[in-house]
Amino acid sequence: MWRPLGSRGDPQESGPTPLSERGMRFLIVEDTAKLAALLARGLEREGLAVDTAGSGEDALWMAGSTEYDGIVLDVMLPGIDGYEACRRLRREQVWTPILMLTARDAIEDRIEGLDVGADDYLVKPFSFAELLARLRALVRRAPVERAPVLEVGELRLDPATRRVWQGDHELVLSGKEFALLETFMRRPDEVLTRLTLLEHAWDGAYENRSNVIDVYVRRLREKIDRPSGTQTLQTIRGAGYRLATDRR
Q1: What span, in angstroms and rounded, lies between the C-alpha atoms of 173 and 17?
Q2: What averages of pLDDT result for each successive group of 10 residues across the chain (248 residues)?
Q3: Is 222 helix (H, G, I), strand (E, B) or coil?
Q4: Is 19-141 a CATH 3.30.470.10 domain?
Q5: Could you count the other beta carbons within 10 Å of the beta carbon of residue 135?
Q6: CATH class, 150-243 region
Q7: Domains of the chain by residue range
């Protein structure tokens, strides 16, 4: 049984700032009634407002009509599954941070979830304390105001609208491709390690031994460098990657 962080005498003085201090509302999308109730009860004990949905269809209209601070989205749902629900939410310009729950821990399954627009994932079974930590991380990364458009060479990236252009051509990027490119564009010409990229584009608790960064760098190269015949994303052997402003 989970024990909510901070309950039953857990120390509060040096811990992270509770989500409840920011008056937040979360949506839990889980078709297993018992698990949904446990998660909702745990978050409510943290002082949070919680709504629940039992299907992907319900998640779509609820997330589209209510401004949530975060969504906990199960992959295995009746009707529209979690992948498709996430894909449709992003297509409808709903950018609420999404934490995807999955019983699948293969790298391909993780990449699929991130690729449709999820911000993080959590593999079942999990501890409630970890769920809270990941929600705190997502909330910290969520933009609180419109960020300026980033420009590096011919690339332009608008964090608010989540649109990217190379010259006059708009690029179509997945959620994680966008997050990775944004990390590069905020630190041009700087060599970034795989761990640094994981911590900024994913979550610090992500499995840093995986090759997910290499996979996504290859995908970005296919969309940015290959069509233009340039070398924007460069591999620095033994160190990591960098986004070069001089692409010749």
Answers
A1: 33
A2: 35 46 81 94 89 94 89 93 92 88 77 83 90 88 62 86 88 87 90 83 55 90 89 91 80
A3: helix
A4: no
A5: 24
A6: mainly alpha
A7: 19-141, 150-243
